Amino acid sequence: ALVAFVQWAGSWLFYSGHGEAVERVAGWVRKTTGKPYILIVEGSGEELRSKAACGPVREVPGWDLERIEAALAAGGSKVGAVILDPIQSRFGVVPASDEVLVSIAELCRSAGALLILDELYTGFRVHRGGMAGFAGLEPDLAIYGGALGGGFPLGAVAVREGLDLEHLEELEGKCGPLAASLAAAEAVLSTLKNDAIYERLEERTVQLEEGLLALAERFGRPMTFNRFGSIFSISMGGEPVSGATSWEATNREEYRRLVSGLREEGVLLPLEPSSPGFISAAHGAKDIEETLEACERVLMRLHQEDLP
């Protein structure tokens, strides 16, 4: 199934988790290219930021093509790769457009830098081929995690067919994944063969989005709902989140009050607004209805608490 879904990949490597995969890829890039710097976009997930930092990392605002081009030019022969978190998951969900991703790929080729997608969240959630498949890209490598393992710890790296795998020992993992993780991945990939699954995910996410925004408006609680396919983030404050500045302006304490109340109702959303949430194939229309009913009760309580 992996071969059929990610057709640009010529080989795969598997790891005990996403963090190990990022760390091994970063080390391999530096060893293979002889270039010490890795470029990441502002808003990249914490695990990518920390694991890639086993050597020098430069961070640029995403999705600012001029700044990315300038950083590649300024780095000259020192930037070995650009590793992209395509939704800037440290800010919830701030996805890059297809056009921006294609432009970044062209900039990488011109600068002689590898293009690597960190598909921890987007892999197999937004498209069978992940963000690369959705945008029609063929990156040099892509790193997968969470969704592929169906909740079990698993990391995987797809390597573009034809890419020179010099210093392969730097890319190989220290220990392989759990047998249970591989079995879970097989089950996930089998489920994704169903052509209707992404349509259902879209329907349920739209149902949640429209219901939450209607409730927020009814109770006078400014809310924005960013999403890319079935990956979503909720922020309080009313202004759309498009990057660092707008994310900093959100009311994170108000978000935590909402999430705390929902947890008392048995609804689990990310504890922090900097983490994306997900709709899964297990969620049906009734599940979303019950979630919205719980949210209505919580918003009513918050409204009453805030009355003078």
Can you offer a commentary on this structure?
This protein is α/β, with parallel strands linked by helices and 308 residues long. The protein has 2 domains: 2-191, Aspartate Aminotransferase, domain 2, CATH 3.40.640; 197-305, Aspartate Aminotransferase, domain 1 (Alpha-Beta Complex), CATH 3.90.1150. The chain is 43% helix and 17% strand. It has 11 helices and 10 strands. It has helices at residues 2-5, 18-33, 46-52, 65-75, 98-111, 130-135, 179-191, 197-218, 244-248, 252-264, 285-305; strands at 9-15, 37-41, 57-60, 79-84, 114-119, 141-144, 155-160, 223-228, 231-236, 277-278. Strands 1-7-6-5-4-2-3 form a 7-stranded mixed sheet, sandwiched between helices. Strands 8-9-10 form a 3-stranded antiparallel sheet. Strand 8 (223-228) and strand 9 (231-236) form a beta hairpin. Helix 4 packs parallel to helix 5 (98-111) and helix 10 packs across helix 11 (285-305). The mean pLDDT is 93.
Question: What tags apply to this protein structure?
Answer:
308 residues; alpha/beta; Aspartate Aminotransferase, domain 2; Aspartate Aminotransferase, domain 1; 2 domains; 11 helices; 10 strands
Topology diagram in text:
Layout (H helix, E strand, L loop, with lengths): L1 H4 L3 E7 L2 H16 L3 E5 L4 H7 L4 E4 L4 H11 L3 E6 L13 H14 L2 E6 L10 H6 L5 E4 L10 E6 L18 H13 L5 H22 L4 E6 L2 E6 L7 H5 L3 H13 L12 E2 L6 H21 L3
Parallel strand pairs: 2-3, 2-4, 4-5, 5-6
Antiparallel strand pairs: 1-7, 6-7, 8-9, 9-10
